[in-house]
């Protein structure tokens, strides 16, 4: 090791700083050429196109994928604070809808919710809120929620696969605008075999794709743990919902609507008491969605009807986004979850009331009830008025004394007047006892267990508690008080002195007690209006806190509900009156505060004004002096300003030129120049959206509402009068309340197609329930089809094809989809959607005609002219139809010519051939049919609870006959009868002799004469054999039979031999062909070898080329 020499360091590579290679590197570094481009230049063949076909296919595929992602860009009209996304959970019964909603709420808010009643709004992220609504199996609910849903979670029971409700809801969504749909597979834990589970998943996924679109998202909920779905699966589903993008639907973006999450009855209780069936005034609350909503408009509540809105106002957002909360005032539960119908909402401030939702209906009922909750519950449960409680209450005026009732106090005052003592009120002293807190302190010091009624009760519950304490005391305590009252005169002198001690400093005690009460009572003005420009958090009754943001118009001023006296003053004294005399106009003012002096100062300061009508400017004295001084100084300053203006202009132009050059350099460096029409369109829409947002960005909400209406995303309150009383008395929060804005209603015409899955054809004039726009109503349609001449011909029944339907109903925009069902009552196993369609035209004067056949009979015939009767009744009717075309049953065409005087309604007509008296003549005419004017809204929300899905309207004729047990009377003309054929005797054909001569011999009539019977002389006589001849004939028959049997047997043997011979011959042929084939192969092989050998020998002798 020591003998080895140390390893020499290798010489480092020295980069060249001069020469052609270094120069090329410098140039490349200056130009900034990427490394990839250099490689392409050095070896261009390596980067050349290897296959033009493959490159073309790749390019076309890339362009197809790019074009598939393109949608027609729409202007983004979503506000900065969009309304919560409506997530509708749909599925058959007992499939796990409520369980998943609870799990998602727990995932987002860490809270548990018991019963899912009405919309449940939660905050799912920094900029997104979700409103979960559970959709029942009622088709009315399915139709209403399909119109407002942004996202549909469609539940599918994997153990039962697709059910009819799933297909019905998908068809409803296709008609009313297709929202985003995500499938959720449940009950996967019922599969024990993994192979069957995989097959079921695959089959259901492809069936779901067929109904929705290829690649639609389908979630799998594998099983449940302790009654809830697995946390990771729920978290994944919630993450997908939180980041999902939505494309605006046409109907939702063009119509404002509100999904109500709270309802309050504002009707006067006295009116309800007098008439329980009177119409109610109701306020509905919810987030405004769609587009802008104007005040004093018309709204439609599906399931109730059309109503006029009395007033709309926007409220503070009850479920604000985390970004919008500058100060955290509400607790975590109230901040993230808002479901008033489910009992979660906290304290809500209305314009005319404050609503407090107690956690009585919440799941967490095991928590201890705090005293503040008891206070509110006692306030709610109060049944007696304050006067009654004060009359029943007893007051102890001093410690250790007996409690007195109001009646006993009056008796004592009468006794004092009789004894010559003035009442305390006349002496100028207010008889106000001390406060409860003072009494409690005295009680602690003296340690005397005396039960007292507070003199100044802070609330009604204190009085109630005092009454309860009295009740617990029993009769013994009352007897003791009576004994004390009767023996008042026999008390000791020390007790009298102690009893009279309460009169000392009574005025000071009363004022202090009043001030304490004022400080303890909440200031209503501060709570409602706020106290300043800063957002404040006020603590009310120590059990909830509310945020108040600063107001544009502050309500300054003294709270009129309070009076804070420093000390009691006697205003009868002259000195007290002189102290405030100068506060009024008639008093003596100082020189600088006199009205005349102030008016002069105002004229000097603000004397200038402009007459807005004439435009003349009037100046005060100070203004005129100021103008003269300004004119003198302006002449000197003009020259300096002109020089400065020129310098500023040049500097400004230089800066603009520099910015323009920098912008051009930036554009050339970064713009790729591949902008398409689609990109330009998107950029234009983006600019329009920014312009829309910037228009009213700096304006406060009150002013914006006056200009543009209530914008989407606001939490609004709609006051609606004249609602039916059943809406309030039979209210069920499980059914959604939707308020959709609309216009006036007249009539409309629709285009209808019978649904291919409905198992029955539809009959004209049978009532049908339509879902059109926001409305669900029953009407009577007339089905018709358009002929080639433009005539609308009435159809008695729909066929399995497109046909038109004319209905009477409210006006709806053209292109609006609608669907029809025959009944919304109950659940049926069959497919309930009878037809789907789209509104084509709005026209009240549409003419539908039905075919009418008028029948007549000829009574006189003159060659081609006939007289017809029985078709018309009067001459006037015939005149109207002169020139009309008629025809007979046999197909002879004719025309009406002129009316006849007798008989009435007869006319003369000409035909293209002579008629017979047995012919029937008919006239085909068209009779106009009027559309039945029936509009019967579906009032399912007015039904009693539990029966809202049993609404039934007008019944069809078939249903009426079935319910009443009426059988159709058969038409006698339609019944089958025994056919009696009358035998017709035709005359003998007579051919003239001249014609017979011309006929050929073969066709002459004499050949057609029937042959008669063979005469007896020509008939062959029968032969009768002798006995000997019969024996000979029998022997011959036996011999013939034996011969036939032998010949048949010989033929069978010969046939078998021949068959065997044919088989042997075919086998020999096959062997022969095989031998020939082998010989040919051998021959060809030898010939090939010989040919190769000859080629090889020829190549050896041939000269070799370079």
TrEMBL record:
Transmembrane segments: none
Cellular component, GO, one term: small-subunit processome
Catalysed reactions listed for this entry: GTP + H2O = GDP + phosphate + H(+)
Entry's localization field: Nucleus, Nucleolus
Highest taxon listed in the record's lineage: Eukaryota
One Pfam family, short name: AARP2CN
Record's compositionally biased regions (Acidic residues): 408-420, 629-642
Region (Disordered): 1-43, 406-426, 616-651, 994-1026, 1048-1106
Keyword annotations of the record: ATP-binding, GTP-binding, Hydrolase, Nucleotide-binding, Nucleus, Phosphoprotein, Ribosome biogenesis
All residue ranges annotated as the Bms1-type G domain in the record: 82-247
Major subcellular location class: nucleus
Biased composition (Basic and acidic residues): 1005-1026, 1059-1073
Basic residues bias (residue ranges): 9-29, 1048-1058, 1074-1084
One GO molecular-function entry: GTPase activity
InterPro entries reported in the protein's UniProt record: AARP2CN, Bms1/Tsr1, Bms1_N, BMS1_TSR1_C, G_Bms1/Tsr1_dom, P-loop_NTPase
GO biological process, one term: endonucleolytic cleavage of tricistronic rRNA transcript (SSU-rRNA, 5.8S rRNA, LSU-rRNA)
Stored PANTHER family: RIBOSOME BIOGENESIS PROTEIN, RIBOSOME BIOGENESIS PROTEIN BMS1 HOMOLOG
Similarity remark: Belongs to the TRAFAC class translation factor GTPase superfamily. Bms1-like GTPase family. BMS1 subfamily.
Protein name (database record): Bms1-type G domain-containing protein
Organism, scientific name: Oncorhynchus tshawytscha (Chinook salmon)
């Amino acid at each position: 090791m020591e003998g080895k020499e140390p390893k020499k360091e290798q010489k480092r590579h020295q980069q060249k700083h001069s020469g052609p290679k270094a120069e090329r590197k410098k140039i490349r570094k200056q130009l900034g050429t990427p490394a990839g481009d250099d490689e392409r230049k050095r070896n261009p063949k390596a980067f050349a196109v290897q296959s033009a076909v493959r490159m073309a296919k790749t390019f076309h595929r890339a362009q197809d994928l790019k074009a598939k992602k393109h949608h027609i860009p729409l202007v983004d009209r979503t506000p900065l604070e969009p309304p919560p996304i409506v997530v509708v959970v749909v599925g058959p019964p007992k499939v796990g809808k409520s369980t998943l909603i609870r799990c998602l709420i727990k995932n987002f808010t860490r809270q548990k919710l018991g019963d899912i009643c009405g919309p449940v709004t939660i905050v799912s992220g920094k900029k997104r809120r979700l409103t979960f609504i559970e959709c029942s199996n009622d088709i009315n609910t399915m139709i209403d929620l399909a119109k407002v849903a942004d996202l549909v979670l469609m539940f599918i029971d994997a153990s039962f696969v697709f059910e009819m409700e799933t297909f019905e809801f998908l068809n409803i969504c296709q008609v009313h605008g297709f929202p985003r749909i995500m499938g959720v597979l449940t009950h996967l834990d019922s599969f024990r075999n993994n192979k069957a589970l995989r097959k079921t998943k695959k089959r259901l996924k492809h069936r779901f794709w067929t109904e929705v679109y290829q690649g639609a998202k389908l979630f799998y909920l594998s099983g449940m743990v302790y009654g809830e779905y697995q946390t990771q699966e729920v978290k994944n589903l919630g993450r997908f919902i939180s980041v999902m993008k939505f494309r605006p639907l046409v109907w939702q973006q063009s119509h404002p609507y509100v999904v109500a999450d709270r309802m309050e009855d504002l009707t006067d209780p006295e009116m309800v008491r007098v008439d329980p069936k009177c119409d109610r005034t109701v306020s509905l609350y919810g987030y405004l969605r769609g587009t802008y909503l104007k005040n004093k408009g018309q709204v439609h509540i599906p399931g109730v009807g059309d109503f006029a809105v009395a007033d709309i106002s926007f409220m503070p957002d009850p479920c604000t986004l985390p970004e919008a909360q500058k100060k955290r005032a509400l607790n975590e539960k109230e901040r993230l979850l808002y479901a008033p119908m489910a009992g979660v909402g906290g304290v809500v401030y209305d314009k005319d009331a404050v609503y407090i939702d107690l956690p009585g209906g919440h799941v967490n009922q095991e928590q201890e009830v705090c005293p503040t909750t008891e206070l509110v519950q006692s306030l709610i449960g109060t049944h007696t008025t304050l006067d009654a409680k004060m009359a029943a209450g007893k007051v102890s005026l001093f410690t250790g004394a007996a409690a007195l009732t109001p009646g006993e106090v009056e008796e004592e005052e009468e006794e004092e007047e009789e004894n010559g003592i003035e009442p305390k009120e006349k002496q100028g002293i207010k008889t106000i006892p001390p406060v409860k807190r003072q009494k409690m302190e005295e009680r602690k010091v003296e340690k005397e267990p005396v039960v007292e009624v507070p003199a100044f009760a802070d609330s009604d519950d204190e009085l109630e508690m005092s009454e309860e304490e009295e009740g617990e005391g029993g009769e013994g305590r009352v007897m003791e008080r009576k004994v004390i009252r009767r023996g008042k005169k026999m008390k000791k002198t020390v007790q009298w002195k102690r009893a009279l001690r309460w009169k000392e400093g009574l005025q000071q005690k009363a004022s202090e007690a009043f001030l304490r009460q004022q400080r303890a009572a909440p200031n209503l003005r501060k709570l409602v209006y706020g106290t300043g420009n800063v957002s404040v958090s006020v603590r009310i009754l120590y059990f909830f806190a509310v945020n108040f943001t600063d107001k544009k118009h502050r309500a300054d001023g003294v709270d009129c509900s309070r009076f804070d006296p420093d000390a009691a003053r006697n205003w009868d004294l002259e000195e007290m009156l002189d102290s405030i005399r100068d506060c009024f106009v008639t008093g003596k003012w100082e020189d600088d505060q006199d009205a005349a002096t102030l008016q002069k100062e105002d004229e000097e300061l603000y004397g200038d004004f402009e007459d807005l009508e004439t435009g003349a400017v009037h100046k005060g004295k100070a203004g005129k002096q100021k103008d003269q001084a300004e004119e003198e100084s302006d002449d000197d300053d003009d020259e300096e300003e002109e020089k400065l203006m020129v310098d500023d202009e040049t500097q400004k132009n230089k800066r603009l030129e520099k910015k323009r050059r920098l912008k051009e350099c930036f554009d050339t460096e970064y713009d790729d120049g591949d902008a398409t029409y689609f990109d330009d369109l998107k950029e234009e829409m983006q600019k329009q959206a920014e312009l829309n947002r910037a228009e009213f960005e700096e304006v406060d909400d009150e002013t914006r509402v006056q200009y543009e209406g209530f914008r989407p995303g606001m939490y609004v309150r709609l006051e609606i009068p004249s609602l039916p009383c059943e809406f309030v008395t039979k209210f069920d929060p499980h059914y959604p309340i939707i308020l959709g804005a609309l216009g006036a209603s007249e009539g409309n015409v629709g285009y209808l197609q019978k649904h291919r899955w409905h198992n029955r054809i539809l009959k004209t004039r049978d009532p049908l329930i339509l879902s059109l726009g926001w409305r669900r109503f029953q009407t009577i349609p007339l089905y018709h089809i358009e002929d080639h001449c433009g005539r609308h011909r009435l159809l008695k029944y729909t066929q399995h094809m497109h046909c038109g339907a004319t209905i009477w109903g409210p006006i709806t925009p053209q292109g609006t989809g609608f669907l029809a069902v025959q009944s919304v009552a109950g659940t049926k196993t069959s497919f309930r959607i009878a037809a789907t369609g789209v509104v084509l035209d709005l026209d009240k004067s549409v003419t539908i005609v039905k075919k009418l056949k008028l029948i007549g009979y000829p009574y006189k015939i003159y060659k081609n002219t006939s007289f017809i009767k029985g078709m018309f009744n009067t001459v006037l009717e015939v005149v109207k139809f002169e020139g009309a075309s008629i025809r007979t049953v046999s197909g002879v065409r004719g025309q009406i010519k002129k009316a006849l005087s007798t008989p009435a309604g007869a006319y003369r007509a000409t035909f293209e051939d002579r008629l017979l008296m047995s012919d029937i003549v008919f006239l085909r005419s068209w009779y106009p049919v009027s559309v039945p004017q029936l509009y019967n809204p579906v009032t399912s929300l007015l039904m009693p609870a539990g029966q809202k899905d049993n609404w039934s309207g007008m019944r069809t004729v078939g249903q009426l006959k079935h319910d009443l047990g009426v059988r159709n009377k058969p038409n006698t003309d339609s019944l089958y009868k025994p056919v009696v054929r009358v035998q017709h005797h035709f005359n003998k054909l007579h051919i003239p002799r001249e014609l017979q001569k011309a006929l050929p011999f073969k066709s002459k009539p004499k050949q057609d004469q029937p042959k008669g019977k063979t005469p007896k002389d020509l008939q062959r006589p029968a032969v009768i054999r002798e006995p000997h001849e019969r024996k000979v004939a029998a022997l011959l028959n036996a011999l013939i039979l034996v011969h036939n049997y032998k010949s048949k047997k010989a033929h069978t043997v010969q046939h078998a031999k021949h068959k065997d011979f044919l088989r042997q011959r075919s086998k020999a042929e096959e062997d022969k062909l095989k031998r020939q084939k082998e010989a040919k192969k051998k021959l060809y092989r030898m010939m090939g070898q010989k040919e190769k050998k000859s080629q090889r020998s020829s190549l050896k002798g041939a000269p070799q080329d370079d």
